[in-house]
Design goal:
disordered N terminus, mainly beta, nine-stranded mixed β-sheet, Jelly Rolls
């Protein structure tokens, strides 16, 4: 539970006698809170000031900061996006649900029915910040459920990247994936899949990307003749007649992963020349291509992974809104920028 300032009580005579000790307690609590949410961070010798944050301490969504990105059946995402998949746990956390309804009870319009495979119709939410941001250190602290068919995406999007006539120049905008994760592969085997990716040039003929997967050092290939000390670059050949970048990198680490039911942090340091990604404060690599110089908005989205294999025709789906164990708990989102 997050630490909070104690509430002031009525000024009785007894309380006035204890004012000195009360003041001490209040000042101590304030100092603790200041340590929890620092006004700034020093990164590479530069001061980054806190310019935006949401600690999710309330009981309703702060609509001055967030809005639902889409409502209703979404063909690209194969889910129904709904406001009732957003709630709060009373302990200072946003909770985003991924739940299902039986097709017979879902009342999906006939023209949308073909979007969804199987018996169970999935429901969740997709939140975006109202304000857009350029550059800075963006950090999200969250806990992800170990549930088949479920995963999470924390990403920034820009208008230039989603334009109907996108430019191949990344300066007009990019998609910045702080993390995409899931804990089961398509066969149902346990995994700790997590990666960070940059997309630019739109999503059509000029689409380009660079991705960093995170894996344990025990998975590192024995033949390291083509690898540097930390990153194994696996370049995908560009399409014929193009110079498009499609590159997968792998970062190997001895640190534990996310598959433990605990809170973890994901972050990106976005500058005019690069993106540096962090999981639990550990840098997993820097990407110095595809760098956007245009503002973007943050998106929080519980998403489907291999849903058709694991959930669509299973015995109970994810369960209803009040039953599902696919609960994505977000502690905070904070942005630190150079002013």
């Amino acid at each position: 539970m997050k630490r909070r300032m104690p509430k002031m009580q009525s000024h009785s005579a007894r309380q006035m006698m204890l004012c000195c000790s009360c003041l001490y307690i209040l000042c101590s609590a304030a100092a603790v809170i200041a340590a929890d949410v620092s006004d700034f961070r020093m990164i590479d010798g530069k001061r980054y000031d806190l310019t935006f944050h949401d600690e999710f301490d309330g009981q309703i969504l702060d609509k001055s900061k967030w809005q639902h990105r889409i409502i209703g059946p979404s063909a690209p995402h194969k889910v129904v996006l709904t406001e009732d998949a957003v709630t709060f746990d009373g302990q200072g956390n946003l909770v985003m649900l991924l739940y299902t309804k039986d097709r017979a009870d879902a009342a999906i319009p006939a023209e949308k029915a073909s979007i969804f495979p199987g018996r169970w119709i999935p429901y969740t939410a997709m939140l975006k910040t109202i304000k857009e941001f350029t550059y800075g250190y963006h950090e999200v602290r969250l806990k992800m459920p170990i549930v088949k068919g479920a995963g999470m995406s924390v990403w920034m999007q820009s208008r230039g990247q989603t334009s109907p006539t996108p430019s191949p120049d990344p300066k007009v905008g990019a998609e910045i994936d702080l993390v995409e994760q899931t804990f089961f592969d398509k066969y149902g085997a346990a995994t700790d899949f997590r990666h960070s990716t940059i997309h630019w040039g739109g999503y059509g003929a000029t689409h380009q990307w660079v991705s960093i997967d995170v894996k344990p050092k025990s998975a590192k290939p024995a033949d390291q003749s083509t690898q540097d000390a930390e990153l194994n670059l696996q370049r995908t050949a560009p399409a014929a007649g193009t110079n498009l970048i499609n590159e997968k990198r792998v970062y190997y680490t001895d640190r534990p992963g996310f598959r433990d039911g605990n809170f973890h942090t994901v972050a990106v340091l976005w500058t005019p020349v690069s993106y540096q990604f962090f999981y639990d404060g550990e840098s997993i690599g820097t990407i110095d291509v595809g760098v956007s110089q245009s503002p973007g908005y943050m998106i929080l989205w519980p998403r489907l992974y291999d849903y058709k294999n694991h959930v669509a025709d299973s015995e109970r789906g994810f369960g209803g809104r009040d039953e599902t164990e696919a609960k994505f708990v977000v502690d905070y989102y904070r942005i630190y920028q150079i002013k």
